[in-house]
Amino acid sequence: MSTASFDAVAAVLLIPIGSAALLAILPGYRLTARLNVVASLATFLAALSLLMIERPQPTPYVLVDDLNIVFIVLNTFVGFTTSIFSASYIAHELETGRLTPVYLRFYHAMYQTMMFGMNLAFVSNNIGLMWVAVEIATLTTVLMVGIGIAFALFGTILVYMAARPVVGEGQDAMVWTLLIQHADNFDPALLNVAFVFLFLGYGTKVGLAPLHAWLPDAHAEGPTPISAVLSGLLLNVALYALLRFKILLAANPAAIAPGPLMVTMGLVSLVFAAFMLYRRRDIKRLFAYSSIEHMGIIVFAFGMGGPLANFAGLLHMVMHSLTKSAIFYAVGHISQIKGTQRIARIRGLTDTHPALGWGLVMGVVAIAGLPPLGIFMSEFLIVSSTFARQPLLAIVLVLGLLLAFGALTLRLTSVAFGEPRGSTAAAEASYVPMFAHLSLVLIAGIYLPAPLVIWFQHVAQLLG
Amino acid sequence: MQMHSLDFDISHTLAGGLVLISFMMLYQDRLYSLLNVFALHALVLALSVAWQAFIQDAPHLYVTAVIALVFKAIVIPVALHRIVKQLGIHRDIESAVGIGPTMLAGMGLVALSMVLMLRVTAEADPLAREDLAFALSVVLLGLLVMVTRRNAVSQVVGFMSLENGLVLAATGAKGMPLVVEISVAFSILIAFIVIGIFLFRIRERFDSVDVSALDHYRGERE
Amino acid sequence: MVVMSDILVQGAQMLLVLLLAPLLTGFVRKMKARLVRRQGASVFQPYRDLLRLLRKEVVLADNASWLFRVTPYVTFAAIWVAAALVPTFATGLLFNWTADLIAIVALLGSARFFLALAGMDVGTSFGGIGSSREVMIAALAEPAMLLFVFCMALVAGSTQLSTVANFMASSYVGLRVSLGMAMIALIMVALAENARIPVDNPATHLELTMVHEAMVLEYSGRHLAMIEFGAFLKLLLYISLIACVFLPWKIAVFGTGPLSYAIGTVAYLVKLAAAGFFLALFETATAKMRVFRVPQFLGAALMLGLLGTLLLFVSKSF
Amino acid sequence: MISAVTIPAVVWQMSCVAGLLAIAALAIALSRSKSSTAVVCGATLVICAAALLGSLRWLLGDAANTSDMTLPIGLPWLGAHFRLDALASFFLVVVNLGGAAASLYGLGYGHHDPAPHRVLPFFPAFLAGMNLVVLADDAFSYLLCWEFMSLASWALVMAHHREPGNAKAGYVYLVMASFGTLALLLAFGLLAGPAGDYGFAAIRAARHTPYVAMLVLILMLLGAGSKAGLVPLHVWLPLAHPAAPSHVSALMSGVMTKVAIYGFIRVVFDLLGQPTWSASVIVLFLGGITAVMGILYAMMEKDLKRLLAYSTIENIGIIFVSLGLALAFQANDLKLPAALAFTAALFHVLNHSFFKSLLFFGAGAVLTSTGERDMDKLGGLIHRMPLTSFVFLVGCVAISALPPFNGFVSEWLIFQAVLQSPELPQWALKIMVPAVGALLALAAALAAACFVKAFGVTFLGRPRSVAAEAAKEVDRYSLSAMFILAALCLLAGILPGLVIDALSPISMQILGSHMPIQANEPWLSIAPIAESRSSYNGLLVMVFIAISASSAVVFIHRFASRALRRGPAWGCGFSDPTPAAQYSGESFAQPIRRVFGTLVFHARDHVEMPAPGDVSPARLGIELHDLIWEGIYQPLAGAVGLAADRLNRLQFLTIRRYLSLVFATLVTLLLVLAIWS
Fold this sequence. Notes:
Oligomer: heterotetramer
Strand content of chain D: under 5%
Helix content of chain D: 55-70%
Structural class of chain D: mainly alpha
Structural class of chain C: mainly alpha
Largest sheet of chain D: 2 strands, antiparallel
């Protein structure tokens, strides 16, 4: 039985890397796009099977537990839907000749490689391996992220140094499951320094201000499917790593509490991003900054800790992934039709392109935290639970939320309503992924199935 | 015991030397000399790594040492010399902050890393303690170089010295797996960056005086 | 039997106010004339005017609407009902409880509302000027009125006029500064509401100064008669209000025999005469003020009312 | 209703809500079809009527007990609780009555709508949202429904998104709405406590410290107040309400503001328990200011629908004053006066929902038949739209608090409550209440002035534009809706005792006391405390006026002349000046502007008089300032913009500067570590 489950894990890892190799050599757009979709679907199914069958025993390299299975399933699902979207998106790009077949190969291969890297980062039980995996996932790095990598690595080394005297030399001192067992008699001072570096290292990838600089550019310049994956998934990878080490640090009473640090950075990112939203002229950058804002909220929630806040944080992360990728699907098609990413040149979408327009409205309404969509529930829990414990923090949080809300709705009213502007050509878009995500978010906002809830609550416990 | 203390002293000296060389980088104001100093930095690193390989008798570390020697001490500096020549980057480095303050900041950073590491309880063996202190200072000094230099090449150099600090720490960590892979991964990353500089013809610096070009690239201003 | 007498008393009162109202106005005019050494028209002139107007045909502006024709009757009725509910010579009238002081004020308010609308109906600028100034004055008069009511309620513990009258008639009220203030406030409001000098001049048709007259400028014949009659009634109403609240001297208490009713009536007539005389005296003694001085005038009334109320709190708290 | 006998009342109500949501879905389906308006409005009408019957039956029948239900949705570990009690049923009556009237009106009005597919899906959704807010019985579902309601109404405001100004209106509305929601969120967070038991039952059971109670009250004033339109949180209201289609404006003004009032009552009176007297001071003060400011704004307005929106603000102020009185009396255990003030507030809620809907319908009728909202381009409509003008007149009389209509009764009750204030022990209240009472009187008188202006300029006089001359009477659906509401205004005015008795179970449930049963009073009159103190009988007043007026008519026409001649109006020698020479809305407001405007609006009149001999016309310009907007909101927006600009420079930093940011962060954190412990 556990072998079967082990195969499932293997599948989650091998399908992407294998198809990446295949896609790198295969010619032709239709075939490769289809293959891309099929591969992603297969990966998603494998991940689902992980839910069904009993978990494999943690090996030095592989670990599957409540925490990362959330991430894996979410990751593979959004990966799958995005591959569908990317098929129709890339088709258009090819027609307009903005994309050469050569680059196309590279693109698909990269896509699968990213998926592989992310899945690996999730399942790896070895913090060094995890680091490598995160790096693979973000091969599109610039100097900025390079620093982040370096910090993360240094932190990892420090953790190893802290663990070695207790756990023993070599392999074991990097196996998370062992680390967490002995965490309480690690050397606190080392752990502290380690956490600072890990926090900044992975925080750079989460996009916390002021380490966020790479994020908007990466979103705006890359092709939209990649932006969707970045916002929807990659940030989660880094977040996941962060959480692992937060748990580790929390397990050691003598070390500093990671909470305050995360709370501060979260609030800073939230407020900063909220202000930045007001002056954005590029629609993809706009939503990139909103991703920073939401990452701030999530990190804040996990920093607050406690069953309610952790639950809310997890929920918020899932909802944000789904919503934000849906928004990017819409934005991708819109910017293709209008031939620009300038917000000022896009007007009155609900008149010219009702499906896209209302889809975007729904997405922004969701991301702005309005009911009956999912993010409202998480924000409700975060704010109310915080206000009961730390009123002042809650006030800052609420102000940040209000600021961001103002900015987003301001842009929304100008983009979705008013006299139409720009090309009104009909969109040959695939609405399925967008509306699939949105309807999921809608359902989650009103009704969360009991098993999901119980499971989330386990994870919330795990996060302490 | 005597032997062990000798091991200790040697590795200690090498690590300390690395910090010293990082300081030397801080007050270089000619590109070529900076590159040379960096080559020296890499050389010392290679030595210390090799020494660690010897005393921990971990043969795989020799690979790292070789990489450090060949790639960082020879290939990269030569390549950068080329770039400087071909792109006609003029030779002296404008530093954002004066040398004096930079040195002071460097002192402060080293002191900071010492303070942080001295908190470490003794049972993490002394070697680790000292090494970590040195490694941390090298990292911070490398970062300081990147921050205070306006010139693209020197920023890359700063990054590489920072990364040397990492390798130092990694090798100092007895029996740490994946060190080789990591150093390889980093070398690739650096190669990417250097090639990037070469391809994109980033002549003087990452921050050109007229930001408008940058903004156009960001599509954020009319 | 008792009910019968109640109805009798109530009916008597309604007829009484109807009969006395023009007489009062005539009396006031006569007094004013005498005070400036003029002969003046007879005190019965208002009756003659009314009859003449009733017999005349109505000249209606071309675009006057049904509202314009309904208004005179509505205003007249509202004011008459209000006047019928204020105790004049006797308290505890049958229908006193249908409306307390606030309701009576509101009834006058609805009369004014329709009159102001009628002023705007024909669409000349005279009507507009009249209506706009009328509502402005009313807007300022009403808070003052309410504070007066508040004062009353504090003293007598009621806004029911007969109760108030009975209470004030009873000996142990004594003289109070705050009551004096309230009375002055009420008098000022009454002057404003009845369009008397110094707020308005009932005798002028100079457009810059007139308020009430401008509003009804378009009316003629029986309509004008109704409106004039309403104005007479209103003056009577306010005077009897002041009388029954502040000098309920000899007012017949409910249920006492016909004799006391007779005494009450006589006393009432005396009060009216006195009030009319003082009104005439005051009007001849003062000049009309500019329209935009009226706010200060009524503001003073408001302040007096508020002051009276607060003073009452103080005196009550001891 | 037979089915309602067997199934629990709350289920009945919830199924009505489900029906409304279903209609919303249906509307999306047949958005482009011709008959969509008829189908949707008709179905909505039916369901609202059903819900109305259900809630009425509950309120009049077994209002003493409650009926609960829990759905397995919303917060997973809590579920969504819904509860029908006296208070809820009353507000359900208000909501669904307004909803039914609006749907009936919409049957006719909807045909003139340029973009029905942008209205029809959200109209039932909006109604469903309001129903749900009233029914919700836990913090989460309450806020969810609350925000859903705001969202639906926002979509309706954006229905005519191409018209200038509507985008701004929608934006301001949405931001203020979410501000309010966040305030409510904080309030509920405080009430639920760190354990996070969001059920209203749990909150009701919990003890709350005075500090918490005060904080919650302030947050509720921010949250519910911003939705209800308390000054200075009202700025969105005059923008958003007129922007929507008129039957929606009627709902927003007449009903949604009441739902906000419901929220305030539910939390402050029901959940918080025994109030403190200091709380009432704030409420009284805000209420008084709101009443006067609202009506002054309305007086200055020349856009008919905006005038109505501002007068809504005034009425909200009146209601809050009454609620503040109830708080004050309740805090001092003066049960009877508290019940009186509370009942008066509810009564006014009901009345305002009647006549404000009526007036908005009338404005909508004018809009459809002339295409004008600017009163200074209207006039003389009484000849062309006799029925509409008649019902509009009824609405004006009612809202001006004149007997014998309903507006007067509720304001009279409030004044009676004000007159009870001497019994209050606190000096602050003793002195404050009379002042607030004077403010109320001022507001009432100004309201009368304001609606003389509204009716006089719009319907009377001579038409000021071609559109006004070409006006025609509107369709019979709209008329019937308006006539029904007018009849209700009159009925509630002449039979107030019945209403008061119907409201008594609510004050019994919330305050534990109620006004004396009015059914015992003779001749259907009402006496709030005792007849010796004060009493009023609307029926008799009306009968008397009718009798005396008609007798006067009969008498005169019988015995005096009935001759009548038409002639030109007397223009002081000018034969028939142009309609432009009439008094316009602005000139009508001039005296009041002179008296209050200079203080409140920094109003200035500029006259440019041509030089002697110059024949060019003299011009009069009026300059008004909305001090609240210019004093609070513009500076806020400016501050945000400034901060955004400053921070935005970070977007254009160079890589080296980014690195130095990172470096700085790292060093700070390390320093913190070094210093820590």
